[in-house]
Each structure stands twice: as C-alpha cells, then as structure tokens.
C-alpha cells in the first residue's frame, strides 16, 4: 500500500475480530514505531505490548472502555506508549517528548493499517491506574494506548476541514 493511500484511508477502529496477529507482523509494526525521528535522536518512547486477556480487560476499564467495550477484549494486543521525558527536549515551555511520541505512534498506526490491521489511538485514561497495572516506573509518563488487531468494521471517512481553512502562505492571513 502506498503511504498516501494509507494516510487517506486509515480509520480509527473500535471493533475487532478475535483473529490472532502473528508475532512477525507485530514486530514489523513495532519496528516502524522504533524508526521514528525524535529530538536529537533521543528516542524517549518505550512500548509495552499487552497480550494477557485479563490485563487487556483491566486496561479497557482504566480508559473507561474507550474506544469501545469490546476493543480491549477482542483485539489480541493493546499497545501502551510510555515516554521518559528527560530523554527529550524542553524548549520555550514545550515538552518535546509528546511530539516525539506522537510521531512514533503515528508510524505504528500507519504500519498497522498498511498491514491490514486496525488501531484506535487513545489519550484519555487514568495514568496512575495504567501505571500500577503495568508496573511502570514513576519517572515514565504514559502517553497513549491502542488496541491492535483485525478490524471488524470499516468506518466511513470523517469530515475534514478544507485546505483553505487550515493553511496560509507566508503570513497568518496569507
């Protein structure tokens, strides 16, 4: 699949089949995330792959069953993205670990889609609950989670703002 096609047709998947995903495919997706660019190539991200059904269920409860009640139960994996903020820059009050992690997670999401799998990036969750559940050390931040599996749905495209509303040339009003 062409990169631009993957970007155009990728959707957040909230329903998954119970089909398995091979470790080879999982590692290929994680490799895409690993290769992401980052602040001074510090690679602040760390991923936790959760396969255990009881832990996936508990993660679903920690995020309030977002994206759906069945996503964490049906998808064979939940991928948890953590960051070590000190391994990234902080400039003009902007913590770049969030940008670094965003780039890495987007590469993971696009790789999964290109390989026929679904994801749903989740940023709303009880960080302390996830931290306790997965024994994440206090210096790490939990940034995002996503179920990963075979989609059981094909959502339609959601509306996007027109180009002229989001892009200016040369100046703000350009």
Characterize the structure shown.
By secondary structure, the chain is α+β, with helices and mostly antiparallel strands. The chain contains 7 helices and 6 strands, in the order ααβααβββαβαβα. The strands form 2 sheets. The chain has a 4-stranded antiparallel sheet, sandwiched between helices. A two-stranded antiparallel sheet has the order 3-4. A hairpin with a 2-residue loop joins strand 3 (90-91) and strand 4. Helix 2 (23-34) runs antiparallel to helix 5 (97-114) and helix 3 (53-62) runs antiparallel to helix 6. The radius of gyration is 17 Å and the shape is globular. The model has no long low-confidence stretch (mean pLDDT 94).
Task: Indicate the topology.
Layout: H1 3-9, H2 23-34, E1 45-50, H3 53-62, H4 71-74, E2 77-83, E3 90-91, E4 94-95, H5 97-114, E5 118-119, H6 127-134, E6 141-149, H7 163-166
Antiparallel strand pairs: 1-2, 2-6, 3-4, 5-6
């Amino acid at each position: 699949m062409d990169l631009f096609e993957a970007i155009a047709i990728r959707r957040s998947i909230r329903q998954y089949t119970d089909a398995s995903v091979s470790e080879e495919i999982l590692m290929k997706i994680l490799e895409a995330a690993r290769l992401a660019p980052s602040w001074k190539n510090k690679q602040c991200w760390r991923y936790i792959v959760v396969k255990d059904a009881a832990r996936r269920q508990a993660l679903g409860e920690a995020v309030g069953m977002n994206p759906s009640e069945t996503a964490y139960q049906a998808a064979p994996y939940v991928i948890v993205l953590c960051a070590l903020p000190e391994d990234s820059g902080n400039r003009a009050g902007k913590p770049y670990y969030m940008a670094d992690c965003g780039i890495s997670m987007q590469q993971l999401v696009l790789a999964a889609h290109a390989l026929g799998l679904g994801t749903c990036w989740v940023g709303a969750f009880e960080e302390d609950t996830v931290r306790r559940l997965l024994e994440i050390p206090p210096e790490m931040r939990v940034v995002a989670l996503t179920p990963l599996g075979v989609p059981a749905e094909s959502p339609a495209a959601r509306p996007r703002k027109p180009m002229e509303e989001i892009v200016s040339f040369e100046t703000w009003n350009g």
